[in-house]
Write a structure and sequence with these properties.
The structure holds two protein chains of two kinds. Chain A is an all-alpha fold. Chain A contains 14 helices and no strands. Chain B is mostly helical. Chain B folds into two domains: 67 residues, no CATH class; 168 residues, MetI-like (MetI-like fold, Orthogonal Bundle). Chain B has 15 helices and no strands. In chain B, helix 3 packs across helix 14. The chains are: A mainly alpha, B mainly alpha. At the A-B interface, helix 1, helix 2, helix 4, helix 5 and helix 6 of A face helix 1, helix 4, helix 5, helix 6 and helix 8 of B. Chain A: This is Binding-protein-dependent transport systems inner membrane component. Chain A: It is a multi-pass membrane protein. Chain A: Its main location: membrane.
């Protein structure tokens, strides 16, 4: 998400809108039309973003239940819910798992995505078809991806992936049923699905690098690796920071694979933050606790967006 | 000398294509596995799993899984739900956010500056962190278990408003002023002049909105109570976590729900790739 654009334009906007206003006389009907045009989207944003967000903050300090308990009213519990997040083993696991998942997915996507982008950045016949093929998993819904890959990760000797690994002497693994491997399997699915998209974004950045620089590098006797490290990477910095942050934020939202395949198991090894807040709020009816998790999740995403804003504005 | 270098060039081009094809296999094989398995019997799928035959049709090939999915599992009921929700959601998403983007980008009015900052601030809030209490709002508005509950809450989307705002801000103001001089209203300008000039950004929002609506799992899980309004991802999850698991039927269901999107993608490749790459949004 281009939240970096968003944050940055807060600072540049003032100047621009002032100059706009000067150049234009306010005419009748403009204000009325403007408010009329804003009203439907604004109403929707108010009802389904702003109010829920405020409710999350408010409820996070209470013991509110989704289904009210008879004879017990909602009470203010201070920071009790937040303390529960930091003192609870399952919650701690959810945050650690989500972090681990990001640590598996993000570097893989950054490295393989960049390599793939350089790899398809050539003017040869048919290259566009290959780009489209690499991109195509992006249009397959995550639920489908998860279900299909769960068959690929079938345990036992005759499982699809196990059979092929068997050819090179790797013993059969139990994959999604093994608490040490399940999160890795879930990460592989996500990498497979979104690698092509990140490749295309990086490719967009690559095509802005002028050909003359590579020509100059060639004349100076740079090797391919040197050209990559000293020309491509520095000039690709902003694109890579964008991919880094947007992929990180997207991985933190892990839910679908967990909900479809593992329900957080085995042994809580795939419980993610979003799955935790879904389960706490919706299944266990602890709306206050779930809201507190949502607020912590929001703060984490906010901090990452701010870091991105800082990294991108630094020239 | 010359012929050697030409030959060497041919070999390196051939190697490049070979590498392209090997990488393409990594992306295509899982999808191929899904489509191929959907026409096999369950026993055949299990038997073929340990060899390369997993990726080619073998054994008794039939459309039995598909007829079971359409008959017994009632695929088209869920398909209809997904299509109704997508049409309702995507058409409102494209138009309503565009209207607000136009007002913020081109019109001048009091409170505009504040409103832009407000939308930008909201764009940073991830949907997941408001979802449980969005459910509470939907509950109080009596929107649970209905098409309205599925499609409406995600209509106003700060990121799309921002995308449109940026687009309209970049439009020449002379266009607006000339139309006003010609006696056009601000309302008319939007529908007659601005929308026809905004096809690329509209298709971007429509494609991203469609991918989001078609694949969403979390919100439909919260708002639907029973099968009546279940969308495709939810129905596939229900099918794959059932007591009795029919492999072929799951593959057939997954294939049927992927095929329409894949066909649209193949037809509009360029727009799809550009739109999704523009923002890196995930469904």
């Amino acid at each position: 998400m281009p939240s970096f654009l968003a944050l940055r334009s807060i600072f540049t906007m003032n100047r621009r809108s002032i100059s706009l206003r000067r150049s234009h006389h306010i005419r009748d009907g403009q204000t009325a039309t403007a408010w009329l045009f804003c009203a439907p989207a604004l109403l929707s944003v108010f009802l389904f973003y702003l109010i829920p967000f405020c409710l999350s903050i408010a409820y996070s300090f209470t013991n509110k239940m989704l289904v009210p308990r008879i004879g017990r009213s909602t009470e203010f519990v201070g920071v009790g819910n937040y303390l529960k997040i930091f003192s609870n083993d399952i919650a701690a696991k959810a945050f650690v798992n989500t972090g681990l998942y990001a640590l598996m997915v993000v570097p893989a996507i950054m490295v393989i995505g960049t390599i793939l982008a350089v790899f398809v950045n050539r003017q040869v016949k048919g290259v566009k078809t290959f780009r489209a093929i690499y991109f195509s998993p992006q249009v397959v819904t995550m639920t489908v991806v998860a279900v299909v890959w769960s068959f690929i990760f079938s345990p036992g000797e005759s499982g699809l992936l196990n059979s092929f690994l068997g050819l090179i002497g790797i013993p059969p693994q139990s994959w999604l049923q093994n608490s040490n491997q399940a999160l890795f399997c879930i990460a592989v699915m996500y990498i497979w699905q979104s690698l092509g998209l990140q490749m295309i974004i990086i490719l967009g950045g690559l095509q802005y690098i002028p050909e003359e620089l590579y020509e100059a590098g060639r004349l100076d006797g740079c090797s391919i690796v040197q050209k990559f490290l000293y020309i491509t990477v520095p000039l690709l910095k902003n694109t890579l920071v964008y991919v880094l942050i947007s992929t990180t934020i997207n991985t933190l939202k892990l839910f679908t694979q967990v909900y479809v395949l593992t329900n957080g198991g085995p042994n809580h090894s795939t419980t993610s933050v979003v799955y935790l807040l879904y389960k706490a709020g919706f299944i266990n009816s602890q709306l206050g606790y779930s809201s507190a998790i949502a607020v912590v999740f929001f703060l984490i995403v906010l901090i990452i967006s701010l870091i991105q804003n800082y990294a991108m504005s630094e020239k | 000398m010359i012929s050697i270098s030409i030959r060497r060039k041919h070999i390196s081009v051939a190697c490049l294509y070979l590498a392209y094809i090997v990488v393409a296999c990594l992306f295509v094989l899982p999808m191929l596995y899904m489509f191929v398995s959907s026409v096999k019997t369950d026993a055949q799928i299990v038997e073929d799993m340990s060899t390369f035959r997993a990726f080619i049709p073998s054994g008794h090939i039939s459309a039995e899984n598909y007829s079971a999915i359409i008959g017994k599992v009632n695929f088209f009921k869920f398909f209809k739900n997904s299509v109704v929700v997508a049409i309702l959601n995507v058409s409102l998403v494209t138009i309503l956010n565009a209207m607000m983007g136009y007002a913020l980008g081109l019109l001048s009015f009091k409170g505009k500056k504040f409103m832009i900052s407000f939308i930008i601030a909201l764009a940073i809030i991830p949907t997941e962190s408001v979802i449980i209490n969005r459910f509470m709002v939907a509950l109080h508005l009596h929107m649970l278990n209905s098409y309205a509950g599925l499609a409406l809450p995600t209509v106003g989307y700060p990121m799309f408003i921002f995308l449109y705002y940026n687009h309209f801000k970049g439009m020449p103001r002379e266009l607006l002023e000339a139309a006003i001089v010609d006696g056009e209203t601000y309302n008319g300008i939007f529908w007659k002049i601005m929308l026809p000039l905004s096809k690329p950004v509209i298709s971007t929002v429509a494609i991203m909105g469609f991918i989001r609506s078609w694949g969403d799992l979390l919100w439909p899980t919260l708002v639907t109570r029973d099968e009546t309004y279940r969308t495709l991802p939810l129905a596939l999850r229900a099918l794959s976590t059932d007591v009795y698991i029919f492999w072929g039927q799951i593959f057939a269901f997954a294939s049927l729900m992927t095929l329409p999107v894949l066909i649209i993608f193949i037809l509009f490749q360029k727009q799809f790739i550009q739109s999704l790459a523009m923002t890196g949004i995930k469904g």
